[in-house]
Design a protein that fits this description.
209 residues, Glutathione S-transferase Yfyf (Class Pi), Chain A, domain 2, Glutaredoxin, alpha+beta, 2 domains
């Protein structure tokens, strides 16, 4: 039995989606950010960074959304969230997940939390630079999908598509949403049509894209 410590719509989203795709039994533990539960001593014992997700199994706490996704893919090959290990396609899958974590998730952290850069809010040049960095990734991914989509690995859906769609969702209130790139929108529409996405929205109480 897995236990997922989560907060709705955050980085825990991709782990929750993967669990739903896999179909393994799990339970949810809400980490209420409004009450500061992520900073409680009890939670910090599990995740010293005070962030989500944390996934408990085999008596251990596992952190970092991209890493947990890769762990689940390896533990449940029958779910086919990645191509078989040892193939070129699997190597491509690993590169996609790590690149998304490094190029997008890390940049979003600075976009949403200017205090990490020592400011109450971003000076206009910093905000513009972060926006440009995120949009450059959308442009690169859209070109990839246009050439060999509709999914990141081509014709086959994978866990990398769950990750990139979560990250696309985070752009919804930015000056330009990722859905303005046509091939990215096509990918997002495919993922949002999946049963796992619809079920997650029900369980986490999400409404807006």
């Amino acid at each position: 039995m897995y236990t997922l410590y989560y907060s709705p719509g955050t980085a825990s989203m991709v782990v929750h989606l993967a669990l739903l795709e896999i179909g393994a039994p799990y339970r949810l533990e809400l980490v209420d950010f409004k009450s500061g539960a992520q900073r409680s001593s009890e939670y910090l014992r599990l995740n010293p960074q005070g962030v989500v997700p944390t996934l408990m199994y085999d008596g251990r706490a596992h952190v970092e959304s991209a890493a947990i996704l890769l762990m689940l893919v390896d533990r449940h090959p029958e779910a086919k969230l990645a191509p078989p290990r040892g193939t070129a396609a699997h190597d491509d899958f690993l590169q996609c997940v790590v690149n998304l974590s490094n190029s997008l998730a890390a940049t979003y952290r600075y976009w949403f939390y200017p205090a990490d850069l020592g400011a109450a809010e971003h000076p206009p040049p910093v905000r513009a630079a972060l926006q440009a960095r995120i949009e450059a990734v959308w442009t690169r991914l859209d070109a990839r999908l246009s050439a060999a989509g509709p999914y990141l690995l081509g014709a086959e859906f994978s866990g990398a598509d769950l990750l990139v769609t979560m990250l696309m969702r985070w752009s919804r209130n930015m000056p330009r949403t990722a859905l303005e790139w046509p091939s990215l929108k096509r990918l997002a529409d495919l993922v949002r049509a999946r049963a796992s996405w619809r079920r997650l929205y029900e369980l986490e109480g999400l409404t807006e894209w």
